[in-house]
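A further point concerns the way the authors explain their paired sequence and structure data. Each protein is reduced to its one-letter sequence and a matching series of backbone shape codes. An entry of this sort, consisting of the sequence and the corresponding backbone structure tokens, reads as follows:
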Amino acid sequence: MDQWSQRSSGGPPNQMVSHLMSLDQPPNCNSGCPKDEAQYVMRQVTDTVRYAMCDAIAQRPSLWDPSREKVTTEGRKSLFGEVADLLNQQFVLQPPITIEEIEKHWKNLKDTFVKTRRKLTYDQQGCLIPPKWKFFNALMFLEVPINPEYLMKKRMHVTPILPHPQQSQPYEMYTGPASKKEKIDDSPPSDEFMEFCRSLYLPLKEVGYKDRVHWLKIQKAIRDIVYEAQLESVTKGPPDMR
């Protein structure tokens, strides 16, 4: 039998043809073959890993501080790569966590922080009621005071609004949209007492973030001083607050 009749009768050459035809078919990944797109799928990681992720990103302000000079896309990738390397050194992650996963986890954490921040509530004494979200304190570094030089530089890029021809006085530079509190007509006016409380907001927040016990002691000390002053005003009459 010649070679041609061997191919027609289903001999070994037919097996070779079947093998060559199978190469044109897509691989069956259900059998456990690796998927290239797996590195873009955000896996569920433990809270410990996410806390470490927050700490690592907090040490790289260029990823979150708006007062810093804006980094390039390559620069952000490099910084997120440092975070990924750090987590892979601290934890046994199989497969190792990727830059894409870090970016997605960070976006979710930051978005949730912003939503939680908007829903903060206070008790009758004006003290913040701690939110239930476990990562809120770990992301308090996002509440950074804005650098005045950055604000001035940002305002200089705002296109000024030309005044009406009949107006001779200089116009004010646009400083951004008014907040929701400023839009409420019945909001209390700002005075020296309110300004003093606002001036303590960021320092007290920083203390509370670093040392919760110290923050509670400061609260108690302030309340004791206010209580003594109120008690004295009741016994001696109201002071002249004009």
In short: DSSP finds nine helices and two strands in the chain. The two ends are 119 Å apart (CA to CA). The first strand starts at residue 121 and ends at 122.
